[in-house]
Automatic annotation (TrEMBL):
<keyword id="KW-0805">Transcription regulation</keyword>
<keyword id="KW-0804">Transcription</keyword>
<keyword id="KW-0238">DNA-binding</keyword>
<dbReference type="InterPro" id="IPR003313">
    <property type="entry name" value="AraC-bd"/>
</dbReference>
<dbReference type="InterPro" id="IPR014710">
    <property type="entry name" value="RmlC-like_jellyroll"/>
</dbReference>
<dbReference type="Pfam" id="PF12833">
    <property type="entry name" value="HTH_18"/>
</dbReference>
<dbReference type="GO" id="GO:0003700">
    <property type="term" value="F:DNA-binding transcription factor activity"/>
</dbReference>
<protein>
    <submittedName>
        <fullName>Exoenzyme S synthesis regulatory protein ExsA</fullName>
    </submittedName>
</protein>
<dbReference type="InterPro" id="IPR037923">
    <property type="entry name" value="HTH-like"/>
</dbReference>
<dbReference type="GO" id="GO:0043565">
    <property type="term" value="F:sequence-specific DNA binding"/>
</dbReference>
<dbReference type="Pfam" id="PF02311">
    <property type="entry name" value="AraC_binding"/>
</dbReference>
<dbReference type="InterPro" id="IPR018060">
    <property type="entry name" value="HTH_AraC"/>
</dbReference>
<feature type="domain" description="HTH araC/xylS-type">
    <location>
        <begin position="173"/>
        <end position="271"/>
    </location>
</feature>
<dbReference type="InterPro" id="IPR009057">
    <property type="entry name" value="Homeodomain-like_sf"/>
</dbReference>
Length: 282
């Protein structure tokens, strides 16, 4: 199976992640991947081509698509586009599961829903503008979207084969969820394997087969994602950020950060602060 598991980290202080699609400049391909979160793409400008399992869904401005948990998909952005993406962790729907850790929405049958598209655009604008009281407005729009999803889009009749397919990937998703909850700890491979009743070798093979990455690298990816978020959103020292996110030392964190982003954390923070000051002046 040639697809990867995608790590999703919610926006700071919110139970979801909202952002503009990274392929907005066009000439971009996101290869086959999956995640446990429910994902909605709303195209505001341009177009995208979605591939869900073996089916193709071209999207143009004003259309959106819902990607279900554990649904394998890829995206081709041939031309420039402006697309809002909302990712909702599966646990947000746990009161509405139709089977154990299973919920499904009509994701491809209703590409045009003006109310949903309007709410997604509004959610992104309110969140990104961050005017006074935006936290309350943002969360209220999010819950309106959740209400529409469970009321109008939720599929109440499920097929056993769909549930079985989802469970093939669910085992690893439970482990990665556990890792995200405990990433600040030492979290040895042997300890995680024992927690879930696997041998070290079996868990290692599971990561290579389904996530296309080794356990250690995946754990570092989680730690780095949270550390990067702290760098953007807090004034904590580099040393504190490193220790808060499971790194053994600030030196080790800085070296790993530079390998990934081409800058030291201190240099990245300086750029962020200078950009913030410029925007404030403008």
């Amino acid at each position: 199976m040639e697809f990867q598991h995608e790590l999703i980290i919610p926006n700071e202080g919110f139970p979801f992640k909202v952002f503009l699609f990274e392929g907005g400049n066009g000439n971009y391909v996101r290869e086959k991947h999956w995640h446990t979160s429910v994902e909605i793409f709303a195209v505001m400008e341009g177009r995208l081509d979605f591939f869900v399992n073996k089916d193709e869904y071209p999207l143009k401005a004003g259309e959106q698509i819902i990607i279900n948990s554990n649904e394998i998909h890829s995206i081709h952005a041939v031309e420039k586009n402006k697309t809002v993406v909302l990712q909702i962790p599966l646990k947000q729907f746990e009161d509405y599961f139709t089977a154990q850790r299973y919920i499904r929405f009509r994701g491809q049958e209703e590409l045009v829903d003006k109310k949903m598209a309007s709410l997604l655009r509004k959610l992104y604008h309110v969140y990104s503008e961050r005017k006074i009281g935006y936290e309350f407005r943002t969360i209220s729009i999010f819950y309106e979207i959740m209400y529409i999803l469970v009321k109008d889009y939720r599929v109440t009749e499920t097929r056993e084969k769909d549930i079985r397919h989802s469970r093939r990937l669910d085992a690893l998703s439970k482990i990665t969820t556990y890792m995200r909850e405990h990433y600040r700890e030492e979290l040895k491979l042997s300890d995680v394997a024992a927690t879930f009743g696997y041998s070290d070798a079996y868990l290692s093979r599971m990561f290579q087969k389904y996530a296309k990455i080794n356990y250690k690298t995946y754990l570092q990816d989680i730690r780095m994602a949270y550390a990067y978020r702290d760098l953007l959103n807090t004034d904590h020292t580099i040393s504190q950020i490193a220790l808060d996110n499971g790194f053994c030392s600030s030196r080790g964190f800085s070296g790993e950060f530079q390998k990934r982003y081409g800058l030291l954390p201190s240099e990245m923070r300086k750029q962020i602060n200078e950009k913030g000051q410029k925007n404030a002046i403008d």
